Amino acid sequence: MYPRARLDALTDGIFAVAMTLLVLDVRLPDEFHPKDVHDLIEGLLALTSKFIPYVLSFLVLGLRWLSNIQVRSRTESVGKDFTGWWLLYLLLITCVPLSTIVVGRFSNLAPAIWVYAGNTALIAVVSFFMLAHTPNLEHGAELHDRQISLAILMATSLAMILVSFFDPRHALWVLALNLAAPFIAKWTGKAAREHE
Questions:
Q1: ∠79-84-85 over CA atoms, to 5°?
Q2: How many other C-beta atoms are found inside a 10 Å radius of the C-beta of residue 144?
Q3: Which of 78, 87, 163, 195 would give a disulfide with 171, using CB separation of 3.0 to 4.6 Å?
Q4: Count of domains in the chain?
């Protein structure tokens, strides 16, 4: 058995580092020397292709972190199965900065979308396995919200791959639908309570 608090501390650290690393690729080239305000504005606007994946990735990681802290377990320690899934999950979280760099630099190429969408889809799949192995999991609104959030992440990841076959440049925008997860979870939770 492993203390849950230590795993939570590791998770917080990994999320903090991964979310910080995302921004490192959003920078002006060293050889960029604007001659006037117009050049500087053009240079900053040229960063859009890297800034948008950064923002979307930051939001996805933020939503993952929030959903982790909302789901509760009535135990202070966890077993090897849960810990193994959690470590795999954290490995995938640490891959988000790399997949964000790939999609930020090559968003017009479908394989870049596949790398990014594959990473996010695997995060969703492993998260479902983690839930299945969480000891003494408290069932309630928080769990429902996380399940909805994971289902939306999985659906948007697969949709990104499909869109990339037709329009890779705009495929990444499908990920923005994850921002609707809290509203969908609230709506479906309310509907479920009304049917009880």
A1: 105
A2: 16
A3: 163
A4: 1
Task: Quote the pTM value.
Answer: 0.85
With contact defined as beta carbons under 8 Å apart, do 125 and 150 qualify?
no
Q: Decide if 138 contacts 72 (C-beta within 8 A).
A: yes
The 8-class DSSP code of residue 73 comes to B
DSSP H/E element including 41: helix 37-45
What single-letter amino acid sits at 79?
A: G
Please give the chain's pLDDT, 196 residues, in tens.
788 889 889 999 999 999 999 998 888 888 999 999 999 999 999 898 889 999 999 998 998 898 888 777 777 888 888 889 999 999 999 999 999 999 999 989 999 999 999 999 999 999 999 888 887 777 777 778 888 889 999 999 999 999 999 999 899 999 888 888 777 877 887 666 665 5
Q: Give CA–CA dist 184/69, Å, rounded.
A: 19
d(CA 79, CA 192): 32
Q: How many CB atoms lie within 10 A of CB 4?
A: 18
CA–CA distance, 52 with 47 (Å, rounded to integer): 9
Which of 112, 89, 91, 93 shows the shortest CA–CA distance to 22? 93
Supply the range of the domain harboring residue 59.
Answer: 2-195
d(CA 196, CA 182): 21
